UniProtKB/TrEMBL annotation:
CDD domains: PcpA_C_like. This is Ring-cleaving dioxygenase. InterPro entries: Extradiol_RC_dioxygenase (IPR052537), Glyas_Bleomycin-R_OHBP_Dase (IPR029068), Glyas_Fos-R_dOase_dom (IPR004360), VOC_core (IPR037523). Residues 7-133, 158-284 form the VOC domain. It comes from the Bacteria. Keywords: Dioxygenase, Oxidoreductase. Pfam families: Glyoxalase. Gene3D superfamilies: 2,3-Dihydroxybiphenyl 1,2-Dioxygenase, domain 1. GO terms for molecular function: dioxygenase activity.
Length: 321
């Protein structure tokens, strides 16, 4: 079996307040809350999934709620920026005006890696970048949620490039290219004087929805992960059969990994690359409409079957949102 990752599946970050998080990502950014569930490894906290109208793989930005966590300190061994795709260059102008209206901390529109982009921060300092699909080819985007007040022609259609910041880029590059099948696409100048170019890698059909941007920095300490940081990035695998083949390949490489994990909405494998960043491989299905009708996604607390018998206790420990 030829193993080939399809692109970015999801990115999971950390918030300190679920209610505020839902408000920003649904009302300000116009994304759909496609699943309101709990962290399966710690059911005392929410796990919130945002995406396109269906929460398709490649559109999902997720958050764990850890109210008592400290604030993150940016640094190496980190996922230092998450991109969100918008349909074209005109959308960036729309969002620039919207961010001013909603008092969202943002920068100017600039080119990164051959695309126009708009960097901004959520209320907790989460580092995000809107990236234009104006000239993008490769992995297709999704369809914006039609019940958002953001016009569809400007709406967020999925995840774009994920930036990794590391002390030793060669170590991460070997895992990406020799183990995971990524290919080097190009590079562009760092925004920090004296630092190496940021290197672009892509997989599968290529394009924004598949890219990893690898930044090497020797002027930073290691990141202190907390509120405002990203927990892990997940890559798309077609199905369970292919995931199990990946488990064998990664185990044979000598990297310690989780083995097969059933998340109900998808199946997973977790491992850390040599600079300490947590990677996940996740299947495209079964999907978020497995236990809820498509038109009611995210409206109630959804629990996978193995947690359903504990619903009363779990709900008692959560603050309603």
């Amino acid at each position: 079996m030829e193993l080939k990752l399809k692109g970015i599946h999801h990115v999971s970050a950390i918030t300190g307040t679920a209610a505020g998080n839902v408000d920003f990502y649904t009302k300000t950014l116009g994304m759909r809350l496609v699943k309101k569930t709990v962290n399966q490894d710690d059911t005392s906290v929410y796990h919130l999934f945002y995406g396109d109208e269906r929460g398709n793989p490649g559109t999902e930005l997720t958050f764990f709620e850890f109210p008592t966590a400290w604030r993150s300190r940016p640094g190496t061994s980190s996922i230092s920026a998450t991109s969100l795709r918008v349909p074209g260059d005109a959308a960036l102008t729309y969002w620039q005006h919207r961010f001013t209206q909603f008092e969202v901390d943002h920068d100017e529109i600039v080119e990164r890696g051959g695309r126009l982009t708009l960097a901004f921060r959520d209320p907790e300092g989460q580092r995000l970048i809107l990236v234009s699909d104006e000239n993008d080819t490769g992995v297709a985007g999704g369809k914006p949620w039609d019940k958002s007040d953001v016009p569809a022609e400007f709406g967020i259609v999925g995840l774009g490039p994920v930036q990794l910041t590391v002390l030793r880029a060669d170590r991460t590059e070997r895992v990406l290219t020799e183990l995971m099948g990524y290919r080097r696409k190009g590079q562009y100048a760092s925004e920090v004087a004296g630092q190496p170019d940021i290197v672009v890698f892509e997989t599968g059909e290529g394009g924004s929805g598949s890219e990893i941007h690898l930044e090497e920095r020797d002027d930073l300490k290691q990141e202190r992960q907390g509120i405002g940081a990203v927990h892990h990035v997940a890559f798309r695998v077609a199905d369970e059969e292919e995931l199990r083949a990946w488990i064998g390949k990664i185990t044979s490489s000598g990297l310690v990994n989780s083995g097969f994990v059933d998340r109900f909405y998808f199946k997973s494998l977790y491992f850390r690359e040599p600079n300490g960043i947590l990677f996940e491989l996740a299947t495209d299905g079964p999907g978020f409409d497995t236990d809820e009708p498509l038109d009611r996604l995210g409206e109630r607390l959804a629990l996978p079957p193995f947690l359903e018998p504990k619903r009363e206790r779990i709900e008692a420990g959560l603050k309603p949102i």
